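This entry is retained here.
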Amino acid sequence: VPGATLMLIAITEEKQVQYEVRQAAAIQLKNICRECWAERMSYLGHPLPSIDGATNPDGTPQQSPLLSDEDKHAVKPKLIECLLTEPDKSIRDLMAETLHCIAIHDFPDKWPELLPVLLQAVSQSADPSQALRVHNALLAMRKVCKRYEYKSREQRGPLNEIVTHSFPLLLPLAQRLSGPTEHSLEAAMMLKQILKIFWSSTQFYLPNGNNADGSACASSSSPALANPNAMEPWFEVLKAVLVKPLPEANTGLEPKDQPTTKEERNAWPWWKVKKWAAQIMTRLFSRYGIHPNYAEDEVKEFAKYFSTNVAPSFLGPICETLNLRPSGQFCTDRVVHLCLSFVDLAVELAPTYKLLKPHMDFLLYKVCFPAMCLTEEDIDEFENDPHEFVHKQNSPLADFYDPRMSAITLVTSAVKYRGQDTMQPLLGFLTEILQRYNATEEASRNHIEKDCALLMFGSLSEVLLGKKKYASELEGLMVSSVFPDFNSPVGFLRCRACWMVQRFSETPWTDDGTHLRNLIQLVLQRLSDPALPCQIEASKALRFLIEVEGAHVTLLPVLPQILNEYFRIMNEIGNDEVVAALQVIIDTFGEHIEPHAIALVTQLSSAFKNYVDAGEDDDDAAMAAAQCLECINTVLKGTCEHPELYKGMEGHLVPLVLQILGNDGEYLEYVEFALDTLTFLTYFPLQISPQLWEAFPLLYVAFENWAFDYMILMAPPLNNFITKDPRHFLTASVETPEGAVKYIDMIFSIVSKTVNEDRSTESEQRKALSLYMSVLHNCTGQVDNYVPIINDIALAKLGQQVNAENPSTRHVIFQVLGSALYYNPELQLGELEKRGVTQQVFTQWIKEIDSMEGWLSQKMTVLGLLSTLRLPASSLPQHVGSMIPNIITAAVKLAGKMKEDTEKGQKDDDADIEPEAGDDDEWEGFDENEDVTNPNDEAYMSALNKLTAGGDVSQFLLGDGWDDDFDDLDDDFHSPIDSVEELHFVNDVLKEAYQREPEVYQQVQAALPADTVASCQQLFAAVDAQRSQAGASTPAS
């Protein structure tokens, strides 16, 4: 409705209107601007339907109507003014998000006045009456900056422009707000926004002070932040923030009125400011301070300056902050976590470690140890809300916010990298705690302290087990300090004992096996512990124990009971690690699982349904559901040699697969596992049931509508369907709104769409083309009318790929063309002739042979090229007839190479590979004058530098060459040609051709190189010998 947006702004900014109405208007305004400002596009560049899911009369998704240019021009200035004057946080945040939605499309080109207006508001910061406008302008600026936070260098022009024009204003304001006389909440809120702007502008790439077009900015105040002089004032601001005292409210000191509850303190603006200061410094340290030599050239000077000067100068403020809790003062978990992360980095850098070294006792025993201890809140949750306790203990996000995790990381780094200074004192400290606990009367024991000591020991398991001098002591530790806790009246100590087993399952036992048997029995008892967290940790512990030599003897007799306990726990709580442990048990006892296979699948299917029904908000249940499907696939893998068992499982699995593939992608997160299940069910049984065939059209519908990206995982089951029952595949169809669609037409639609869509990767296109081979290999003589379509698609793709550096796709195309020649050489040659490409295709094909490494490309080349010789020479196209000697030479050479590779591969399989000997038992870490060197860190920094130089984010996240994982079809493609021996084929085709047309092939033989003739004779002799041997080994009837 024209003018609706202005009306909504008017309602939102009118303070006399009821608050709920104002808030509703702000929400509606945000939704309209997000939906109707510009055509909504997917990340692949396709228009998105309207958010409400409305459809047109013909059923197609309805597009949202767009706002008029008049409305847009009127809205933007009113929105800014409304935002600048809004005091309520909820409505203010909605306004800021609306501004962000518009800025995505219009800033800077269509909204050049946005930044000047915001900077004008910020420039009034000296006037106390303008504090609200200043803060809200900073909030808006942060929203705009955040848009470019992760952009590559080429796309960061607008952000560089913002930095160039705003930082000369923001720096003086930040210096004033962080000063010793500023204590107001308004100052903290403004300072927080400035630091968030700084974070968005610098955390991934340091702006160089250039203009948006890359030219140098003429302004002398342009903050080229890669210049140490430009950054130093900002570092002083961050230090001032970190050291600012935040006294308790009862002291009456500034800043006053600090809240008293933990939740309110965490949200208090002054603690938020400290959090952002610590976060910025930790990020800059990890990005530039640890490996200055690996920084990109333009920031190398800054990186060296940071590691030598800045990082050491921050250790004082960081350690002062970490001393707050030991001295009885408050500090938020997030700030402690970030400061510990900073110190962890400082351990790796020689200049900072030298300063830290005298204070390591303080950091390890006064900071890290208390941070790792269970709190009263933890114990209360363990006893009264065990589900929440388990959720927190297993949360993957804990690494990013929990000081316990950062303390563990710091302790581990200190021992691993600076062990000569820390290892012995730390072990002595922990041993003393355990000895004191054992020597103390039960009623007076400090259970929390012991739990933390065991946690520290367990966190160091990799180091302790890796050194003989420590590993030999671990048996005593386990027997004296862990075994007794399995029967402790203290629940969290029983839980810790089970956790310790996971960490030290590889402990070298020196007795007759009694300790291991006792340990297994103790863990089995804890599976039925009254405390749920103990059950969870015990179930996880078993996955490690079963891999220990000698454990099978104890576990196998009670395997049914173990399985029952796991399913009971799984019914109690969705935990992916419990299901993962069950998966290891199934995998380990594979040959003993068959009697339980159907019951396992029944239970796992039921658990999956329960977890899915828990709702999408339960992340733990969703992860456990996915693990159930993976566990099902492990059962299928373990019983694949007895596919008759699959029949009893299908009743549970087929409905599950159909549920996931149907329902318009509602279960998208489980599709990968369902496709794996479908691959098992369609590959191993001799026949495919009618119920399973129902999945075939669902695959097509899913691909067409929402599962395009799953082509690589869809191809194997589709290939299995075609291979197992080609007759049904060719005759079956399904009714759609457009009429009946045959299954074979579905396959051709999938291949065509994949090969022709820009969004598909090369590996997806190769996998799709393999479906053409499935059809040609399995439907001999029945798909002649589809051969022209195959040529249209394959030859068009070959034209695009002819000069591609990576030959993988070309090789797959030649596999398809070879399959077509093998299917019907006369028909295929006719298709090539019709298009006038016969000579080009054969010339390129023979040229490619030397670079073909995969057996499938080699085999289809041999079969395809030689299939032309099954035709009379007189009927061959002229270009092919003249190339017969070249075809024979190439095919015989390639067949010989395949024979040699096969024989060589068998020899390699028989060879024993001696493991490399190595022993770092004496190594105690790096000297204080050495930086820690870590190949993984160096590789990470190298990849990161490529990205900041303009690389692709997906390439950074997935790794270079991630698309090459599926380059080779050899591993999972199967068809009737598997039984065709290429040497026999060469032998038979050449002999038949010679017998059919002796005069022609005598001339051909005369034109062959001498080595080719010799190879042919060797090949004929080898095949005759193989057939004679096979005949001799066949018993007479």
The beta strands are 733-736, 739-742. The chain has 51 helices and two strands. The longest strand covers residues 733-736.
